[in-house]
Specification:
- By secondary structure, this protein is an alpha/beta fold.
- It has three domains: 231 residues, Rossmann fold; 171 residues, Glycogen Phosphorylase B (Rossmann fold, 3-Layer(aba) Sandwich), CATH 3.40.50; 149 residues.
- The protein is built from 23 helices and 19 strands.
- The strands form three sheets. An eight-stranded mixed β-sheet has the order 3-4-2-1-5-6-7-8, with helices on both faces. Strands 11-10-9-12-13-14 form a six-stranded parallel β-sheet, sandwiched between helices.
- Strand 10, helix 9 and strand 11 form a beta-alpha-beta unit.
- Helix 20 packs across helix 21.
Length: 631
């Protein structure tokens, strides 16, 4: 295999990934961050991550181009007027790996919205990369073929760099079943110099689904940071404690796991089950709680929030057994992390790397979605728990160790650089630095969040020190927002007055009810009436005027004659917020940020690194016993 030449300048690798750790979810795309950190650790690669700051619009946003236009205009103005789109790190990843979070519009989950996500990401990425001072020699590496690989193909062509795509997704069959997504998926495949599957099982599925893929398909596993985990024996572990790590979702086998645990308790009444992670919705979380109550296992089950790396290390160092009951997996990182910790695994035979568990010295495999088989395997494994050798468990993970995987990727990059045509030298030089910057933002940061309920859910996850720098402009109830904000600017009364002035409110008695509905969903209660009557722009103008009046009265704006460099920073959460802030941004009264709330949190974390994000061995031992970790 061709590898990178020794003593060469570091190779620029642009990593395109929607899944990447952030303040709201440090587990999201952790495997991409581990790979980026492993590549950087070789000293032969300069990774730069291009991820996204999703901006929620309603389900029908494709019929209303003003949504797309407002976000695109805001993004273009920010990228053209400043040089700090790239932060020195993401929340939850190592310092020194630059991360850009590009704002893109997203719908609320319907298929038509998913059909265009590749196009929206493509346009945003091209805009970003045209501004970055890239080198003459590099590789674009996208994670998942659609939407990210499709978007990255346009960037790779623009740069004249080869494209490598790694597929992780479990939903490829669904994407290929929709004509619009299938066409874009296959376009990404054609553009790629190499197409990586993270397991043999996934590679076989892709060979069947995509004719002609074989010539560029290779298998390279996810990089797992096994050095963060120390293999330990039974001493210090809690007897009969079962551990689950991951999203609490149906396809992750949560129903099967809870039903199996009920059977385990009948045989081992002292057994306990910890589930580290989260559900995607409150309703889904409530479902698991109700199921545990119905099964009468609540006294022995703990539903715990997601843990950072040090928390996962500590959890795996104290448990007796990891249970991985997913219906289907393309890889299964938590099983490798468990084995690296000296923790045996009982898992469903669900693809990915589950085949390594055919070796019963590592644990057991069972049929997926079969609670009785899972319970019996758990009981058998607990009965022979003393037979497992931590060193043997750890040795099984060596092929997945981050340095080993990074070495394979370097060889692959060397191959595609040698095989592909000479790279372009005629592209214009950008001004944004490849390496992230850590310049502080002077408060106040003005956050437009007209829907205060959804804003509150996002802001509650930020540290108090960052909240203290935010002035929030909202049209909803202030009570939905967290305490500790620098300022809350409410446009509630102005919105009511402006809408009443253009005849959108009836008698006073009904106005209050209609206003409450409007504030719960600013685009909802009168949306159809306004669109059908051609009054949408009129309503938006009224809301913008109301927001402007409240914002100006608050005193957070510089005088209109001030330079844009002195204007307060503005962050927007949703499409309606970009619309509402457009006038103030266009006039220079507010300075647009090159990202959303994820970008802002990354900037704050770049300036305020958290201790222990990469746990030392001593901090891990301490965390196992610490009551402050909820262990």
């Amino acid at each position: 295999m061709q590898s990178l030449p020794p003593n060469a300048d570091p190779l620029d690798v642009l990593i395109v990934a929607s899944w990447y750790p952030g303040y709201d979810d440090t587990a999201r795309g952790r495997f991409v961050a581990d790979q980026a950190e492993a590549l950087a650790g070789t000293g032969m690669v300069r990774p730069l991550v291009a991820s996204f700051d999703p901006t929620l619009a309603d389900r029908d946003f494709l019929a209303r181009p003003h949504y797309l236009r407002s976000v695109a205009d805001f993004r273009a103005r920010a990228l053209s007027s400043r040089g700090d789109a790239v932060n020195a790190r993401a929340w939850g990843s190592e310092q020194g790996i630059g991360v850009a979070r590009v704002p893109v519009t997203e719908g609320s989950g319907n298929a038509a919205s998913a059909d265009v996500q590749g196009d929206l990401r493509r346009d945003a990425l091209v805009e970003l990369v045209d501004r970055i001072a890239v080198g003459q020699r590099g590789v674009v590496h996208a994670h998942t073929a659609y939407p990210d690989g499709y978007a990255a193909a346009a960037v790779a062509e623009r740069l004249g760099w080869p494209l490598v795509i790694t597929e992780h997704a479990t939903f490829v069959a669904r994407q290929l079943g929709r004509r619009a997504q299938r066409d874009r998926y296959l376009e990404a495949v054609r553009a790629a110099s190499r197409f990586i599957a993270v397991s043999d099982a996934l590679a076989e599925e892709l060979r069947v689904a995509i004719p002609g893929l074989d010539e560029k398909l290779v298998v390279v596993p996810n990089a797992v940071a096994i050095d963060d985990f120390t293999p330990t024996g039974l001493e210090g572990r809690r007897r009969e404690e079962l551990l689950f790590v991951g999203y609490r979702r149906e396809r992750k086998g949560v129903v099967t796991l809870l039903r199996a645990f009920a059977d385990v308790l009948e045989e081992r009444p002292n057994a306990t089950l910890r589930l580290l992670g989260k559900s995607l919705t409150d309703a889904e979380e409530h479902r698991w709680q109700e199921l545990a109550e119905d099964l009468e296992v609540t006294h022995a089950v703990s539903f715990e929030p997601p843990a950072d790396r040090s928390g996962i290390v500590a959890a795996m160092a104290r448990a007796s057994l990891l249970v991985h009951a997913s219906h289907r997996e393309t890889f299964g990182i938590t099983t490798i992390e468990a084995l690296a910790s000296g923790l045996p695994v009982v898992a469903a035979r669900a693809g990915g790397i589950s085949t390594i568990l055919e070796d019963r010295a590592l644990g057991e495999l069972v049929p997926p979605q079969d609670a009785r088989f899972l319970a019996l395997a758990i009981l058998r494994t607990l009965a022979r728990r003393s037979e497992f050798d931590p060193a043997y468990l750890r040795a099984a993970t060596e092929p997945f160790a981050a340095p080993a995987v990074a070495g394979r990727l370097l060889s692959l990059y060397g191959e595609v650089l040698t095989a592909d045509a000479p790279q372009r030298t005629d592209r214009p030089a950008g001004t944004l630095p490849w390496v992230g910057r850590t310049e502080a933002i002077a408060p106040p940061v003005v956050l437009f969040a007209l829907n205060s309920a959804r804003a509150g859910q996002q802001l509650n996850q930020l540290p108090p020190e960052l909240l203290a720098e935010l002035a929030v402009v909202t049209a909803g109830p202030e009570s939905a927002l967290p305490s500790g904000l620098r300022m809350v600017v409410s446009a509630e009364r102005e919105v009511e007055r402006q809408l009443r002035a253009i005849g959108l409110f009836g008698p006073r008695g009904r106005a209050t009810t209609r206003l409450r509905r409007l504030l719960r969903d600013p685009l909802g209660p009168v949306r159809r009436r306004l669109m059908d009557g051609g009054l949408y722009e009129l309503r938006q103008g009224a809301v913008a005027a109301a927001v402007l009046a409240a914002t100006e009265r608050s005193g957070i704006l510089e005088p209109s004659t001030s330079s844009i460099e002195r204007a307060p920073e503005v962050i927007c959460l949703e499409a309606v917020d970009y619309l509402a802030s457009a006038g103030l941004v266009a006039s220079g009264r507010l300075r647009p940020a090159p990202g959303g709330i994820l970008w802002l949190a990354d900037r704050w974390r770049s300036l305020h690194p958290a201790p222990g994000e990469r746990p030392s061995r001593s901090s891990t031992r301490d965390a196992i016993q610490s009551p402050s970790t909820g262990q």
